[in-house]
Amino acid sequence: MAKTELAVAELIWNIIARKTGNVGKVDFFPQKPAFPFGDTFPEREDGQQPLERAVPESQGVSSAHLAAFLKDLALHENVDIHQIMVVRNNKVICECGFEPYPAGMWHASYSMCKSVTGMAVGMLIGEGHLRLQDKVIDLFGGKKNLLNIFRLKDITVEHLLTMTSCVSFNETGIVSGNDWVRGYLESGLIGVPGKKFEYNSMNSYMLSAIITEVTGESLMEYLRPRLWEPMGIQKVFWETCPKGITKGGWGLFLCPEDAAKLGILYLQHGSWKGQQLVPEDWVEMSLKRHVETPSSMSNYGYGYQLWKGGREESFNYNGMLGQDVLAYPDLNMVVVTNAGSKELFQNCVLLGIVKKYFEEDFNPPAVLPEDLRGQIMLQHVIEEMEGRRTGLPVIEKGGWEKRKAVYIRSTLRQKRINYLDGKLYEMEEQQVGLMPLMMQVFHNNFTDGIHKIGFMASGNRLFIDLYEGKEKKSLEVGFVKAVASNVSFNGEIYRIGTKGEFSTDEDGRMVLKIDFAFLEEACRRKLKLYFDENTLEAHWDETPGKEVIMEGLDSLTDLGGKMGFLMNTIKESGGIDVFHLLVERTVQPVCVGKEINTEDEEAAKNEPAYQDQTEE
């Protein structure tokens, strides 16, 4: 079995076997910082360059139309919408964060950032340092050998841009070792380059590697004076591979407003405030349909690291699970979405809703009459979605009886909080971590396993303590709305919104349901805790969950090679049901803990712990 395929199979097995620590073949080093709430380029006079805000009607769009759009998105559980921004004529006419996700925070973009990599390639070509027809193998002369010269001799920069390289080293290669460029260049082909669309994030990574090879700078370093600073894009972070090459095809964290600016940039043919940042002819070439795409992914074709859209001349910067910049030139409009959808590709519920409101029979005028009632309705919907509008007064329909019921629920919750105060449970199995599996793989940041779970009360506030490896993660559980905290995972800082709810199961056991929303990501961790005398039973889950993970694993059957052969063999032998069951138990594990007498466990109190927490 080839090195990459063996590494993928080994990683899958290690995860299913619930091994902890760095179970991959890739060296881990902390990268992701905490979200910067302050100004990161204070020395620049132009600052963040915020987009102008405007009343929707002043730009020809009905406030009632936007309110219905937000409510429609919120109604669909499969969408799990996080943030929305709508811009027309370079003015923000609607922005909303869906509780617990705050508006304006950066978000993992996944493959949406491929379009940014495409912009950088266009800049490099415009500077005369690269050509579309340059052979990839020639650009990495130091890594040439007889094998890759023969195999990859025909692959050009344009093939990388259009996803037609047909190189078999794909996304799964990120778990096989530290040298991804070598892995790509030593890989085989699954077709004839230039003939067929084969979506592969490593093509985008190689474009980033080419920029580094040609300029001596990482993609982030190259873009800082050419894109980020001129556009006032300050709060941005892009992960690198172990060799220090910007990932290119994923790993970018970007705020919705800055993503909207990138959409506007292409609507303006690469110009920003009178400065031509991306060559105009490159923008024109990028937006052409260069290759047809599978109907399961998109019906409209692919340009240079971006997708064609369904409306006239429209285009999308698209990332899985709902990270999108949808641009409509005929409307001079941009729609930005961040979500945690349960669907991977473009043909999904989320984009179906966007098309319903902004593509199907949507032809707004230049301006509409003032609609104060509609504007108030939109503002109320936004406040409700963001958790800032609590609705009716306490004494509402139902009168005193309803107020009495609220009081009883509050009293019962306080009783349960008091019951949990000071309790500490040692887990019999220590293979489950707080970070969702999908995030662990994407960030190469694997769990050390939660070995203790404890609780602390402060008045009517409840904190859950998760002892994972050498770190103690202490999070306040919000019961009215989520409480946000910065939490360390092996030195990387992620912001989590934690919300809980007490209930009772059919056996009379107290149950605490907790939703851990990773506010910068598409993922959530779900936890149900069942309390029975001195025993704690923890039921874990995550979203996007087993359906999306199995969709990704099932796609391995289309890869060819020995990994594809292995997955097909499992299917044909009837073993796929067993495999699915193993994956389900991995994504939805059940762990049991026994209560510790903390008075006799001084060591548990004095355990070394890394803790970095702030609250909103």
From TrEMBL:
Residues 84-336 form the Beta-lactamase-related domain. It comes from the Bacteria. InterPro entries: Beta-lactam-related, Beta-lactam/transpept-like, Diverse_Enzym_Activities. Pfam families: Beta-lactamase. It comes from Eisenbergiella tayi. SUPFAM superfamilies: beta-lactamase/transpeptidase-like (SSF56601). This is Beta-lactamase.
